[in-house]
Design a protein that fits this description.
9-stranded mixed β-sheet, 2,3-Dihydroxybiphenyl 1,2-Dioxygenase, domain 1, alpha/beta, binds magnesium ion, binds 3,4-dihydroxybenzoic acid, single chain, 26 strands, 25% strand
Length: 629
């Protein structure tokens, strides 16, 4: 499998696009005609620039409204084609994409189109060029790859082939089995794009909402597998029309694109019928067994504030690091590490972001293999020196430049708590409150980074993404999407903030970047936990009384239950399977908070309650409200 991407997928001017595409590791690039026309260099200059980056031009496109034209238009389309052939020869590429005709004056008829392509094939052959035909989902007569293939088949010319584009086929839900019988030599190139499922006009959907394979909801993996089963092993080229990507930063978007293709190739190759696809093998996605720890970086003189909150939540200091200023606070299976080092990465993170949960530790099935996979997917490795005899835990850079440590139970990593730490046997002044494990970790990111992190987590770890839900903040919308595994041992909620007046946006602005904004702990009995917390001096986030009247009416709750919820400031939700109870802490620092949940067979995250929680947090964070911009 060779990787390519269309210039239209990336923002910037042609030289910036090419630099980003090359840096991301692609083998080739599709030159989109407008990118070339807008550039004030000759076709030969562009060709040279591409090759200087070590890239190959995989395709020149698109050539529009060609087949089935009545005279005198027909004659002119052939003249136009000859002009494009001139450009292609100067660029140094032999393949052009003809997309199906959308002109109202074009005539239908498979044989008529086949005859036009035969003639075009004759002209292309004289110059050693090839022509690929693609069915646009909104073509006037041809909008199905099966019809495009029939035209190519009837043209019967070596220089005429088919171009398959996942978007056009999958947006129309065309049976992908039809691909399996196409001879691989007749597939000239494959274009790939995913898209979120949105019910809208096909052309508008295609031109504005495509995204990288794995970022959307289309069955791109099955599509690619059907192609691999023909024996095709040529270029897979991303062609992503996306408004957000057009305005985004070129390098990270190109990097996401490359990651999406490697991930896709890896999934496809695992199928026994798709073995002809050449992809470098990598370990399977890592199975996350649990969250081992969450680590905060704080300045030593500010640690007391965090520690006080932890104690009121019922945590106890159980261990201290043998050589570093790191304490472990425990409750149930939860470990919170408080790192007060001034040096190293923790100190550097503090200097940039202030107090923050900058690292998470995941227990996986095999940490070495997990790291190997992450690196194969171009994750950024992290390491820093450890003292002699201490365990070096492998890590990769995650959201906001923070760390994801990878541990397992099989190697020495499983003994890190005995090796690197010593018990401090401290007696707690406060009592445990029944918190058992981390239910979820909520990371707040810029809206434009959401897809990056969804792809990061789902490609490295065995996990799936949920549909995006809109969270209504009084100052704007925050989009929320969850990455989770089937067992629930990995649940990461990603919240994408569009403006800085939302609570999420404020958090990003004040902590100078994306990061963990809240941690949710699981309890088996939220009312018992609430009582225990109250005894510890914990003050929950105070919820508007109006909320409880509404909840009682909405769900038909017994008044006694509503009273208990109101008395403890507990939020309530229900889905078709079960019930959900949520209790929040006030904010710590610039918008960080803790949540306690009881899940009774409930699958979601209480999104409908978010507006009430956000309003309450904002009241508490700045009684006079967040600054208006
Ligand atoms: O939106 C379009 O017009 C367009 C053009 C060329 C393509 O390859 C394509 O998939 C769409
Ligand atoms: Mg296309």
């Amino acid at each position: 499998m060779k990787t390519s991407i269309a210039t239209v997928s990336i923002s910037g001017e042609l030289p910036d696009k090419l630099a980003a595409i090359a840096a991301a590791g692609f083998d080739g690039v599709e030159i989109f005609e407008n990118d070339f026309l807008a550039f004030d260099g000759s076709p030969a200059d562009v060709g040279r620039m591409v090759r200087d980056h070590g890239l190959e031009i995989t395709l020149f496109q698109p050539f529009r409204d060609f087949e089935g034209m009545p005279e005198p238009h027909r004659g002119r389309t052939f003249d136009r084609a000859e002009r494009k052939f001139d450009v292609m020869q100067q660029l140094g590429t032999d393949l052009v994409l003809v997309c199906s005709n959308v002109s109202p004056i074009s005539l239908g008829g498979i044989d008529r189109a086949a005859a036009d392509f035969y003639e075009l094939g004759e002209r292309a052959a004289k110059r050693g060029l090839r022509v690929g035909y693609e069915a646009l989902a909104w073509g006037r007569h041809i909008w199905d790859h099966r019809d495009a293939w029939e035209i190519v088949r009837r043209a019967g010319h070596d220089n005429i082939g088919l171009i398959l584009d996942s978007f056009h086929t999958l947006s129309r839900k065309i049976d992908i089995n039809s691909i399996r019988s196409i001879p691989k030599e007749k597939i000239f190139i494959v274009q790939l794009a995913d898209a979120p499922l949105i019910d809208m006009d096909l052309l508008y959907w295609s031109r504005h909402f495509r995204n990288m394979p794995g970022e959307g909801d289309l069955p791109v993996t099955e599509f690619t597998r059907a192609i691999a089963e023909t024996g095709y092993d040529g270029y897979f080229s991303l062609e992503i029309f996306n408004d957000q990507f057009r305005g985004g930063a070129a390098k990270p978007i190109a990097a996401d694109g490359h990651r999406s293709l490697i991930y896709l190739g890896d999934q496809v190759r695992r199928h026994p019928d798709a073995r002809s696809l050449t992809v470098t093998p990598m370990p399977e996605r890592a199975v996350v067994k649990g969250i081992s720890f969450v680590e905060f970086t704080v300045a030593e003189d500010e640690a007391a504030e965090l520690v006080t909150i932890l104690r009121t939540l019922g945590f106890r200091k159980t261990d201290t690091h043998r050589s570093k200023k790191v304490d472990v606070y425990r409750q149930g299976d939860i470990r919170i590490l408080v790192n007060m080092e001034e040096g190293g990465f923790a100190g550097a993170s503090y200097a940039v972001h202030g107090s923050s949960a900058y690292a998470i530790g995941l227990v996986v099935d095999d940490a070495t293999r997990a790291v190997e996979r992450a690196l194969a997917l171009n994750a950024e490795p992290f390491s820093q020196p450890v003292a002699a005899g201490e365990v070096e835990v492998p890590a990769i850079r995650g959201v906001g430049g923070g760390l994801v440590y990878l541990l397992d139970e099989e190697s020495d990593l499983g003994r890190i708590w005995d090796i690197d730490f010593e018990p401090c046997g401290e007696e707690g002044e406060t009592a445990p409150a029944g918190l058992r494990f981390v239910d979820h970790i909520a990371q707040t990111v810029g809206y434009e980074e959401m897809l990056t992190w969804v792809l990061f987590y789902t490609s490295i770890f065995e996990a799936a993404k949920t549909p995006v839900v809109d969270i209504i903040d009084p100052a704007g919308v925050v989009r929320s999407q969850v990455v989770q595994n089937a067992s629930g041992s990995l649940r990461i909620t990603l919240n994408g903030a569009e403006n800085r007046r939302t609570l999420a946006g404020h958090f990003i602005a004040e902590t100078f970047g994306s990061g963990v904004q809240h941690l949710a702990f699981h309890t088996d009995d939220i009312f018992a936990t609430a009582t225990a917390l109250r005894k510890n001096g914990f003050r929950p986030l105070s919820i508007s009384p109006n909320y409880y009247d509404d909840v009682e009416a909405r769900f038909g709750l017994e008044p006694e239950l509503t009273e208990k919820l109101r008395a403890e400031n507990i939020l309530y939700d229900r889905d078709e399977r079960g019930e959900y109870f949520q209790l929040y802490s006030p904010t710590y620092g610039e918008g960080f908070f803790f949540e306690i949940v009881e899940r009774r067979d409930y699958a979601g995250y209480g999104a409908v309650n978010a507006i009430f929680r956000i309003a309450a947090l904002k009241r508490q964070l700045r009684p006079e409200g967040l600054p208006k911009l």
